[in-house]
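Q: What does the assembled structure look like for these inputs?
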Amino acid sequence: MSKELTIALAGNPNCGKTTIFNNLTGARQKVGNWPGVTVEKKEGKLRHKEYDLKIVDLPGTYSLTPFSIEEITARDFILNEIPDIVVNIIDASNLERSLFLAIQILELGRPALFVLNMADVAEAKGIQINEKKLSQLLGLPVVFTIGNKNKGIDTLVEAAIEEVSRFSEGKESRDIRYGLEIEGCISRVETEILQSEINIGGVLRWNAIKILEDDKIVKKKFQDLSSSAAKKVFQTSEACRKRIYDLFEDDFEIVLTDDRYGVIAGIVKETVTNLAIKRIDMSRNIDLVLTDRFFGIPVFIFFIWAMFQLTFSLGAYPMEWIDMTVSALSGSLDKVMPPSMLKDLLLNGIIAGIGSVIIFLPNILILFFCIALFEDTGYMARAAFLMDRVMHTSGLHGKSFIPMLMGFGCTVPAIMATRTLESDKDRILTILMTPFMSCSARLPVYIVLAGSFFAEKAGTVIFSLYFTGIIIAILSGRFLRAVLFKGEEAPFIMELPPYRMPMLKSLLIHMWDRSKMFLKKMSGVILIGSIIIWALSSFPRSISYTVDYDGKINALKSDYSQMIASAATQEAEELNRQLSLELKDIENRKEQERVSNSYIGRIGKGLEPIFKPIGIGWQASVAIVTGFVAKEVVVSTMGVLYGVGTGEGEALEKALKKSGMTALSALSMMIFVLLYVPCFATVLTIYRETSAKWAGFNLIYTTMVAWGMSFLVYQTGMILGLS
Amino acid sequence: MTDTHEQEKKQFKRLFQQQGVDQFDFRFQVLEAFLKLEHHVIIKDIQVQLKADGVKLDKGFVLNSMELLCRFGFASKIEFDDKETQYEHRHLGLHHDHMVCIKCGSILEFKDEAIEKQQLKVADAYGFHMLQHKMEIYGICSKCMEHRTELVPLHKAKQGEKLIVKEFDAGRNMQLRISSMGLKIGDLIEIVSAGFGGQVVISAGENRLILGKGMAEKIRVQPFDRIKTQRHDSKQESNDTFRAPLLLSQMKTGQEGVIRKVSGESVLRRRLLEMGINRGSTIYVEKYAPLKDPIELIIKGYHISLRVHEAANIFVENVKFKKR
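A:
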């Protein structure tokens, strides 16, 4: 019979936790989000002898205070889900700092195991750790591992299982004892809790410490159980806090932190021998270049450029293959299936819709590979270090730079890239700002409009548009920071981990996990979305056309067939060409009428009064509305609506000029396209990464900004007489 | 001296009777007691002397009498910084100045003709007619100076040092706490570890004790085996040391210092502490970012970055350039 055990992995960021997790579980992992928050939750399974082990990778934290989501998530998991054992991964080369989290985990009173990872790095640094002594002092097993060489992993599992059985036989975890005063306070509160006869769960000592530390979450839990008992306990704890303050002139939690470091210092002193080997610190040498005062930023820009190139240039090839496959699929289905509404739905709705999203897959894979590379080597922290000053001006974190920059390529992966940001506020803010970075799909719109109306100055106009986007993003950042995200900014306290050789396996797992999440999230909603948009653009089906196009086509065909039959071979070819041209013209006109009569066209026309003040006519309005599907569609819709068909640039230019569009209204439209609602896929991504609230907010906010800016430009232009 | 004292007593009798001061006998006893004492005395000293003479007078009366003695020129009042008012004999025609030790409170009398003359000259130069003057020099007496170099507060001691506990500079509560831990004056202790949040782990015999910063500050110790030349070396080394605490944000690339205080808003402070930026840790400024904002620091053997305005919450002392 197999026994099931849950093992939670905890540890500091950059302690090699994920590597050990990957080594333990291989490909059998599940990545998702922790309930309620967008912190990645990783789970894996492992079979060891008669045990079925479920491994849960907790978020990397430095402490278990309730300040960040990661910390609360990790703590709640240990307290509420009650894993059978908590395996704390410790960076052996950085024992002192790691022990701070370790003794907090110990305090939770769950079975625990300490893993001294990166034993080789520690050795190279001349650090020798007496693990027997450490295990003796802390009262739990301690094992050595070298994560990236897969050493000691089996010992880890064995030790974990052993420790679990020891606990089931009645072993209890050892308490860490602090200074006299602190201990006095703890026992006073403990007694008070015992007297209240309320079971708040978890270890008594831990609860007492948390109440003394003024931990809001534990206090609230207690209060909910019994407010009268809680009041009494809180009175005692307040008295204790005051006493500590009087004695040490500092808050209890600060004094306790000091005490913890005192205990740690004692442990380190007894267990660590520092051999005075002075090795060359490779990391510092690399940083001599990478974060240098002069070279740092150019090198960074080069890396980003390379990432951009890889993502969008290299990604273009597989994108083309996907595009070809999708069109081949729809082409073959087109031949096989009889014409029906179902066929239309399948081809123009579902396949086209899913195709338009799946086409981003290569981009996303490459991008996530690059980001995983940056993260795993340790360069990401440097990038944030270099760029923080710039990003800070708009109230953001240095790490926001990369997602913002990716926004120039495609907003969808850019929003996914915000996962590297730890603070929720920073993430949401970055997500809201990224759509203002002009994505590559908007470029065709600029090319057509600027090309038609600004001729030689087109380049400058397009450049200014990109620049406007950046400025609007920065202003929005400051505005939103001041209005919606008030309060202290998250402190920028970031470890700059030593550079490490990335492991291909871990890079690939990282890349695939995130991409998989993207695909999974997309597939459901995109299906429904594409069906809705398809329906809007293809209904109502029975349009009473003003002209009998079909009759015209048939008449034309019969006319030409007679002429061709009687003509010579050469002339016949010429006639054939003429026929197809005229047929196309009629079909274009038919399509123009159909689209303008479809629901989406009616919406566009209905919106005309709104677009009028910004100088945009009904055809362009409809094009803008269809642009919600994907920005690429704007140009093709304009083609249809101006009756020139899709994909013929020059004809469209002429048609645009003929339609009475002016340079000013073209500029106004370009600004609108730059700033308005990002595409359907982006809104979905925002919804998935944050919440419906923020997706909705983004929709409204961007549109308002776009309209406002266009209005400003158009009306100013009109006043200045620039039409 | 006795002669002058006798003379003064006579004058006193005459003057006081002339003025018709009340309770003459008691006042006379105060004078007698006062004259028996030498140097600088406070009211309490006089009361003790009176008691020894078999007279019991309350503080208010003694104080009142001393005020009178001052008024009639038998005593003079000296008020040094934040000390109780002291009285000294006033022997007419004799003048002297004071040096006050801020450490042990002892007062040295001195007279220097050159200074006296110089004072007159200075007053003269400003067209000022001097009637009287008072000069007090505050400092540390030679005895305390000698002591001072020997005694250091425990939290300043280095890891591995062997020390003898010399005195507890603490209030009653703290003294009680210290002695309840089993630490007494004269104990030989060894520093097991120091510098982590100002906390000191010491071994006293078989005992291992953790002392918080507040406590360690108040225990003065003497190095057990410090050799004079060693001290000489350290003096040379500290030539480029800025003693006054600096803000971390004021430090330059390549400087190292010991964190003295982490202030700021509670959340930030706790975060900093959790990352190992605590009192007593050594911190090294690795570099500033190219745009001058975040600072890269090395602490507890790892690299960390902070924004400048966050670094401004951290006070660092013993800042000096160091090669790493």
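The mean pLDDT of chain A is 81.
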